[in-house]
């Protein structure tokens, strides 16, 4: 239930011009999501009250430009989705992609289920659980995350979910280059390519987004066991090129 003292009208910051270009005819859904974050999201402790005035620039647009790294028609998993950033924003901006929001906490998945239903977003599903619960069960074209964990740990959670020709795309902060330099030896050991850093949203939004893009070094060796992907049998769990994980999420 929303706190009646929180006005849906006054709590939502104005829509910046950049949002109209990014969301186009889906801007109405994005606005409704912003209102949900600024009201229910604050009341339920999913975002801090100080974040509400800068929802568009710092969170929604920052997440929406992820679409530059997502192929048309792709399947996407958002690990540790929280309040739906960046996965739900991506689903709104790109109705052609199919997004799975993976989040272990019940209060967050309850919020996500409610918001997805309220917005009428049909290309999203919400999965309550940790990323490793899907290891060996599903793979995706893109596996993303935003401010979840350091790269080596994050790769242990995400890479087993990346298809052979897919990609892990982690949204990071301004210290991304230092983090990549430190993490590269471990990522190579896990069987990944050297990470590439991309700046998303250039010329489109006022605050661009840094993304680390990581693929498999040997795509042809990555697959789900046939028994898992076909839904029959009891084959071994995990992709054949599954990296070693420090700890599951």
Mind explaining what this structure looks like?
The protein is an alpha/beta fold and about 250 residues long. The chain has a single domain, classed as Rossmann fold (3-Layer(aba) Sandwich). It is built from nine helices and seven strands. It has helices spanning about 10, 15-25, 25-45, 55-65, 85-95, 105-120, 150-160, 175-190, 225-230, and strands spanning about 75-80, 100-105, 125-130, 140-145, 160-170, 195-200, 210-215. A hairpin with an 8-residue loop joins strand 6 (about 195-200) and strand 7. Helix 4 packs across helix 5. The longest helix has 17 residues, at about 25-45. The protein starts with 7 loop residues before the first helix and ends in a 19-residue tail after the last helix.
Question: Any chance you could write out the topology, listing elements then pairs?
Answer:
Blueprint: H1 8-11, H2 17-23, H3 27-43, H4 55-64, E1 75-79, H5 87-93, E2 98-103, H6 106-119, E3 124-128, E4 140-146, H7 151-158, E5 162-172, H8 176-189, E6 196-200, E7 209-214, H9 226-230
Parallel strand pairs: 1-2, 1-4, 2-3, 4-5
Antiparallel strand pairs: 5-7, 6-7
Helix pairs in contact: 4-5
């Amino acid at each position: 239930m929303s706190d009646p003292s929180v006005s849906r009208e006054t709590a939502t910051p104005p829509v910046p011009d950049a949002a109209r270009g990014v969301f186009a005819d889906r801007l109405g859904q994005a606005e409704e999501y912003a209102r949900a974050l600024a009201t229910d999201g604050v009341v339920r402790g999913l975002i801090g009250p100080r974040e509400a005035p800068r929802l568009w620039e710092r969170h929604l647009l920052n997440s929406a430009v992820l679409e530059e790294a997502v192929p048309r028609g792709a399947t996407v998993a958002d690990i540790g989705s929280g309040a739906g950033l960046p996965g739900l924003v991506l689903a709104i901006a790109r109705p052609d992609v199919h997004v799975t929001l993976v989040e272990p906490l019940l209060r967050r998945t309850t919020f996500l289920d409610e918001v997805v239903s309220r917005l009428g977003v049909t290309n999203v599903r919400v999965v309550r659980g940790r990323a490793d619960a899907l290891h060996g069960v599903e793979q995706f074209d893109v596996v993303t995350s935003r401010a979840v964990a350091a790269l080596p740990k994050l790769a242990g959670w995400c890479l087993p979910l990346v298809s052979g020709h897919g990609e892990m795309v982690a949204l990071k902060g301004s210290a991304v280059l230092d983090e990549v330099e430190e993490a590269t030896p471990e990522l190579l050991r896990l069987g990944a390519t050297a990470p590439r850093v991309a700046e998303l949203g250039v010329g489109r939004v006022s605050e661009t987004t840094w993304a680390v893009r990581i693929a498999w070094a040997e795509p042809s060796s990555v697959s789900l066991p046939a028994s898992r992907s076909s839904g029959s049998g009891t084959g071994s769990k995990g992709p054949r090129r599954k990296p070693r994980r420090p700890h599951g999420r």
